Amino acid sequence: MVAPGRNGVEDSPSASSSSSHMVTNHVSSSLAASTAGGPTSSPLRSLSSASGGLYVSAPGKIILFGEHAVVYGRTAIAGSIDLRTYVSLFTSADGRIYLSLPDLCVEKTWMLKDLLKTIALNPDLSTDVPNDDSPPSLELIVPIARKLSGSSEDSSGVQHLAILAFWYLLIGVVQRKRFRDQQNGDGDGTTTDGSDPPTNNGNTSQLEDPITKDLLAVKVTVRFKLPPCVGLGSSGAFCVCITTALLQTAGLIPPPSIPADEEGSLTWDDAHLDMIRKWSAAAESLIHGRASGLDAAVCTYGGVASYKPGRPIENLRNIPNLKVILVNSKVERNTTRMVQTVKERMKRSPFIVENILNTIDSISQEVASILQKADENGGVVENGGRSATLTPAFMTEMDHTNLQPVSVGGRSSSLSSYVAGGKRGSTASALSGISGGDARSSERNEFNETFAHLNDLCRMNNSMLVALGVGHPKVDQICTLLARYGIHPKMTGAGGGGSVFAFLKPDTPSTIIGMIKDELAKLEYDMWQPQLGGPGVMLHPNKPEVFIAADRIHAGPVSSRSTTPAGSHQSTPAVRHKK
Ligand SMILES: Nc1ncnc2c1ncn2[C@@H]1O[C@H](COP(=O)(O)OP(=O)(O)O)[C@@H](O)[C@H]1O
Ligand SMILES: C[C@@](O)(CCOP(=O)(O)O)CC(=O)O
């Protein structure tokens, strides 16, 4: 039998109820809770976390090229960014399941025995189980997840989708664990891959409990460093974190062993990362409607990669010193709705839309070949400092050892100039100090050319997205502003607002970056420079800072969602999402 958790078990809340009904639904009263002392009154928060827990994080992402087209099977190029999402997971000894999403003002608890009962009443859950690593059946599990979570059928707000994805994964993990335990002779003490079962920090109480021994009473908290609902992969990172934490807790994947950063964080081997990716992609499809799987892949593996549905994600081995800026329009939107917009256009004008998608596909393919060409011509740094081409489905242990945090800004600026593409005598030309005739070395010219090319392709891709109907006036305003500097950004993610990214020439003086930032700030847009291509999902050896900081803040005023990585700006309350 597999232990229900390798993580610590927290103390039970003092006011424990033995009701077999759903216990507390804090979602609907989230804002009221905030004003009335909020999360501090949650049963979850009254628990001690002295015994430790399991901490997992996954990165956000930028789609460089190919969003929407990738939903229809075309190629996309995307990379992870250094804004991560963190989950903490404890097993609970009080027979309750807890979900805390402080950024969304969600605090929910359910009784584990309700899950148990439902499983007993659904024989299909015992028979309709994939015999491999593929994700649980959405068709089978989602109706059960809706019922158990208490989320209403017609609600599609951010909280509902996050809760639904959590429940889909939880039921799926429980179902798979029971199935594998039965196959293994119910209690042979090993995980399905033959590794030792997690020790649960020496606490065996749950193992001895006949009800909970094969079910998960978990307490899950998710904290974000990336702004939600603006195209930076918050849903992908969320699903990857929850999937990983639950699979790990159930012993369905072994503890990770591959170093992922200098702080002792670890990641999993390729087979288990692939399982995480697949389960996360299924969960994310509940949030995205029709999901391509791109977000889940990038948030799982990290790096910068080319992705085509149905094929293994292909890590781009050599990339130029890509420096990007991200601008948050602060227009939060719903990916499902944007995907639906494109679908409707496709229905109305299939021939035109197919051609637009093919054009986007050509852009992505050209980008992939530019990046390879850049390798041949020199003037590049290897992707994330890695030395191998990584096709995650076939990655080796050695490859993973190279999945270290990336510094993309370290290259000598003497090689890097950005042909801004601005008008002659425009702000950009004047400020960049680059003239068309500047050809001190052919290598430098090649490098300039690479950036000019990418800049131009960004403009084209953005126009195609506008043609698909996912533009937004605020995005247009940002594009117009940056064009004065010769920078041509594009929407990243589903569009309809959200975020905009652009390549920046690596030697752009900080004064210019400051000017751009100030201009954007006057219009109330946030701008920052994320690091591109860092590590994917990982298990942290210690409590991440984001939880320590939250503990500190806890005694003080309740924080609300932020739209910037540093949390310096407040965003609209999550409850305003009615899309
Ligand atoms: N801070 C958060 N906590 C929990 N879930 C979140 C958070 N941010 C986003 N999500 C989940 O991700 C969904 C947003 O996904 P999506 O519309 O695809 O935006 P994005 O482009 O950021 O991925 C939300 O509906 C919610 O389910
Ligand atoms: C529009 C799409 O291509 C990307 C959506 O990205 P995001 O949810 O906005 O981060 C959808 C998908 O690939 O599943």
Automatic annotation (TrEMBL):
Biased composition (Low complexity): 12-21, 189-199
Single GO term (MF): ATP binding
SUPFAM superfamilies the record matches: GHMP Kinase, C-terminal domain, Ribosomal protein S5 domain 2-like
Family: Belongs to the GHMP kinase family. Mevalonate kinase subfamily.
Catalysed reaction, written as an equation: (R)-mevalonate + ATP = (R)-5-phosphomevalonate + ADP + H(+)
Electron transport listed as a keyword: no
Main location (coarse class): cytoplasm
Enzyme class: transferase
EC number, as in UniProt: 2.7.1.36
A Pfam match: GHMP_kinases_C
Keywords, alphabetical: ATP-binding, Cytoplasm, Kinase, Lipid biosynthesis, Lipid metabolism, Magnesium, Nucleotide-binding, Steroid biosynthesis, Steroid metabolism, Sterol biosynthesis, Sterol metabolism, Transferase
Biochemical pathway: Isoprenoid biosynthesis; isopentenyl diphosphate biosynthesis via mevalonate pathway; isopentenyl diphosphate from (R)-mevalonate: step 1/3
Stretches assigned to the GHMP kinase C-terminal domain: 458-516
Localization: Cytoplasm
Name assigned to this protein: Mevalonate kinase
Biased composition (Polar residues): 559-573
Positions of region (Disordered): 1-21, 181-208, 557-579
Gene Ontology terms: biological process: cholesterol biosynthetic process; isopentenyl diphosphate biosynthetic process, mevalonate pathway
Superkingdom of source: Eukaryota
Organism expressing this protein natively: Panagrellus redivivus
GO cellular component term, pick one: cytosol
Domain GHMP kinase N-terminal, chain residue ranges per copy: 217-303
Keyword 4Fe-4S: no
